[in-house]
Design a protein that fits this description.
Blueprint: E1 6-12, E2 16-25, E3 29-39, E4 43-44, E5 47-48, H1 51-69, E6 75-80, E7 85-95, H2 105-119, E8 124-136, E9 139-142, E10 152-163, H3 164-176, E11 180-186, H4 187-195, H5 198-203, E12 205-210, E13 215-221, E14 224-231, H6 235-246, H7 250-260, E15 273-276, E16 285-288, H8 289-314, E17 324-327, H9 336-344, E18 348-350, E19 356-357, H10 360-363, H11 369-390, H12 395-405
Length: about 400
Amino acid sequence: MQADEHLLAIDLGTTKVCAVIARVIAGDDLEVIGIGTHPSEGMQNGAVIDLERTTRSIEAAAQKALATAGVEVSRAWVGIAASFIQSYNSRGSVAVLQGQRGITKADMKSAIRAAVDMKIPPEMQVLHVIPRGFRVDDRTGVRDPEGMVGNLLEVDVHLVCGRKNDIANIERAAQAAGFRIEGVILQPIASSMSVLSPAEMMAGVAMVDIGGGTTDIAIYKDGHILQSKIVLIGGDLITRDIAAYFAAPVEHAEALKRSFGWALTQPADEAETIEVQRIRPRPPRQVPRSDLNFVIEARVEQIIQQVERTIDQALPREDLVAGIVLTGGSSLLGGLAEKFQKELGVDTGLGIPGGVTGFTDIVKSPTCATAIGMLQYALKERRRLQAEVGRGIPKVVRRFTNFLSKYF
């Protein structure tokens, strides 16, 4: 089997690096054949601060996945969510020459390029350019203007950018680990691909991926992304809160959160006690479970406030017809969906990644949402590039129009 029949996704999380290999099978379905994880080292808030340690983390996770799969893969897709990521909504316009002949793809790309040029600072690199809708003269809500007659073409786009130097450091770490980078993907966009259906994106939905170090948010309506945001709060901060409050070792605080933690305090918690191990020389002590959940709930409310602010910036809350979909490892915290629903008044459920086979006992979990979505995104992008090669588009043109054409 040839290496180009496989896809490798490397999800650079704050707490762990997760590498997943899939085989492309009949009908462009994906079968997961290898998974590897390793603690994320050498990174802070998603940015590389120690190149050698980051390289070792990537290499260790990827080699575990490769060993399980029994294949060799030299190219990889990298998923990021970091403090250096910025998202913008922008509008571009272009006068249509010889408009009576109809709008062309070249006109559409020119309008998108104008939207990009108006918004992007020179130190930033474009990761995603996602058209949200076109306007032809005074006609709004146009999904595909190709062939329409008009004099002025406008487009609204959602732009995702990252600081060039930080992206270069991530790429350098992956290359030092032995992989050529096929592309870089924003993690909430990847997670959305694996846990949201087209119907949910059309109806209106907020995808909230709560990981160890970040909460990643993506808002969709009418099939388009309206807003994306990376919030530097996640499950690890809840764990550290517990450790600080009880003077407990971090490992024990994590165990308490997983075994007894609940995002919504309940009256019965007052009557139940749990044993808390504390940092020496302090002896263990019994505390009400309500004390633990009080600490957890305070930080969860901070996360919910950030999600609420992002939703309200994007659309009226009643437009979230499909509600809120939680995913990511920290979404498994007990009572979290109920807490979101209580605070925001929006139906909230858990998002499970789908659309792949293999290793189902592992991948059918919110913890794998980003990596699975990355594989799905990567396959779609690979097929687009193969189609362009088939049409004889020169390589230099493909590079120049890469981020403009992928959504047409």
